[in-house]
Amino acid sequence: MTGDQAVQAWLDWLVHERRASPRTIEAYGRIARGYVAFLQAYRGEPVDLDALAGVRAAEVRAHLAARRSGDAGLQARSLSQTLSAIRAFHRFLDQRLGRPAPQIALVRGPRIKPALPRPVTEDQALGLLAEPEADPDLEAWEAARDQAVLSLLYGCGLRISEALSLTAADAPLGPSLRILGKGSKTRIIPVLPAVTAAVEAYRLATPWPSVGSEPLFRARRGGPLTPRHVQAAVQRLRARLGLPASATPHALRHSFATHLLGAGADLRSIQELLGHASLSTTQKYTAVDAERLLSAYSLAHPRA
């Protein structure tokens, strides 16, 4: 089996066994093919399974160095993602094809300072939810639609893709919502009455009624609403409200978690609501909440 065939076998496994998303497959395929092509150029000969098993730590480091200094000019976070994909590729070769590469364990990725989520305040979140009604470029049903989508992001902590995956069969919303998230993992999310009311207002106003498995949220001409539309809508709204560029649709999901934590919710519950596979992913919101408290203390305490 050639190196390129090994890459294709890995991608097929990711599709059929792991049910990875198309974007993940595209990114992993690009990284793995570039890795194999580099090894072939570096060694001056074709790379097969045995050659991949015998890869040296110095060769992997040379590949990362080339990615940092080449046309791509990758930064530390992108280099870390590249190394993670290479490790996943070799893990597949070891576990599925019996070709371990011991020296991969000797390669260390660049140090990355964890980026904290950048939520909006409660007032800013509520402002974003209310502002579509005042947008002169939107018809009444479009304003109701945007309010419904943003209400799902902030009120339920959904990702954009999860909110837009709702179908006509999901409405009217009940007291809870079953969401199929990343990695095909299902989670149950309680639905606030305000979120239900926003979705119902959109359903009553839309000129594009949906049935069965058709998308619940429609664009102006009746096609499915896209993530790009939601991003552009929030970009217009934040400009009208004078909010920073960090006020994105995903920031509403961050705000959902941060505001729950500030109100006393425990991390395990927030992890379940967000659909995080690891508690360490959810723990970053504790740093945000501590930062907010310190900021309030510095501004309010007379001796600060």
Q: What class do helices, strands and sheet pairing give?
A: mainly alpha
**Gap from first CA to last CA:** 66 Å
Taking all residues together, what is the mean pLDDT? 89
- Rg for CA atoms: 23 Å
> Count of helical segments?
14
Give the total of beta strands. Answer: 2
User: What oligomerization state is this entry in?
Assistant: single chain
Helix fraction by DSSP (H/I, runs of at least 4) = 55-70%
**What is the beta-strand fraction?**
under 5%
Element string (H = helix, E = strand): HHHHHHHHEEHHHHHH
**Principal-axis shape:** globular
- Main sheet, how many strands, which sense, barrel? 2 strands, antiparallel
Strand sequence of the main sheet, in spatial order? Answer: 1-2
- Poorly predicted runs are none
What labels describe this entry?
two-stranded antiparallel ribbon, 304 residues, 14 helices, 59% helix, 2 strands, mainly alpha, globular
